[in-house]
Amino acid sequence: MATIERDQTYKPTPSAPVVRLMVLETDLPHPDTFSERGSFGQIVHHHFSRAGRAHHPPLGVETDQVFVVTEQGGRIPSVQEFDNFDGLLITGSVYDAHADNEWILQLLDLLKRLWIEKPEFHFVGVCFGHQLLARLLGGEVGPAPSRDWELGHSRIELTPTGQRIFRTLEDHIHLHQMHQDQVVRAPSPASASELLAGDSDTEVRVWGRSEHTPVQGLYIPNRLFTTQAHLAFDEDMVKRQIQIRVDAGGIQDLEHADRAAETSHLEHDGVEVAKAVLRLFVYDDDEYTGGDRKTS
After folding, report:
1. Contact 20, 62 (CB under 8 A)
2. Considering the entire predicted model, what is its pTM?
3. Of 89, 90, 80, 91, whose CA–CA distance to 118 is shortest?
4. In angstroms, rounded to a whole number, what is the distance separating the alpha carbons of residues 102 and 41?
5. What is the pLDDT of residue 5?
């Protein structure tokens, strides 16, 4: 296992805890992105470290990462490898979260065991990870009914849950998108009854939606946070990831791809969303009453 990465600018104190996160990498970045910023796990580490420093009070971040695509030389970690971590994050991927590749089925089995055997463990998913965790909880994942892509800088309308967990009075945020598949039907206590045994009243909440994607993210207090959009993408990453999908034939509407690439420089709310993810580990946002609120 790789050496745990730490934010060297952070000095832990009893009042400012450290969040320890295992990143499950489900794809490889564009070669130029890798040479500039490292693997997706390293990109996640730097983004969440920045969010931790920006949070009030500051939060430290330590991460490790495992590439889990076994058909590309990765491996599925054991349950025991998560013993020293507070939670995991599943990255985005070019693979379909509704597919039955052997590594995807093995990963679902691992997630199920972790959910059942570690009741205090936290689960975070981005794009593919969002869809896979929805599948784990009995939601339905598949191509968008329109069969088109949601790409580039996008407006996400917030539900009351989203406004609360992002600590904002605004009714929307902006993030970068890169997907055709989506969560078609959100999980429910009934669909997740096996994993929510003994806690059947737990509500799987939707925190945001867009015209293209009605389930932009899922939330269970102190347990689960997912987002269809990407938190850590910058301008170059957006353009490169679009180009990868164009070259592979996944995106065929080239005008749509070009328009999306032209939005890649626009400011987005990735740090604010990452701060909300970190609070999943250390606070109960249902009891939030004020402070550290974004109003513009």
Report:
1. yes
2. 0.90
3. 80
4. 22
5. 73
Give the side-chain half-sphere CA count within 13 A for 122: 25
Query: With 0-12 CB in 10 A as exposed, 13-18 as middle and 19+ as buried, what is 106?
Result: middle
What number does CATH give the domain 8-142+182-234+269-281?
3.40.50.880
Distance between CA atoms of 219 and 277, rounded to whole angstroms? 10
* Bond into 57 cis (ω within 30): yes
Determine the pLDDT at residue 289: 41
Dist. CA 237–CA 261, nearest whole Å: 10
Which residues touch 198 (CB under 8 Å, ≥6 apart)?
A: none
pLDDT for res 137: 96
- Domains of the chain by residue range: 8-142+182-234+269-281
* 173: Cβ contacts below 8 Å, ≥ 6 apart: 155, 156, 158, 162, 166, 208, 268, 269, 272, 273
Q: Which amino acid is at 105?
A: L
pLDDT along the chain (296 residues), means of 10: 61 71 96 93 96 92 97 98 98 96 98 96 97 97 91 94 95 94 92 73 90 95 95 88 87 86 90 95 58 42
Both tokens of residue 115?
């959910």
Res 290: pLDDT: 44
- Is there a contact between 167 and 207 (Cβ–Cβ < 8 Å)? no
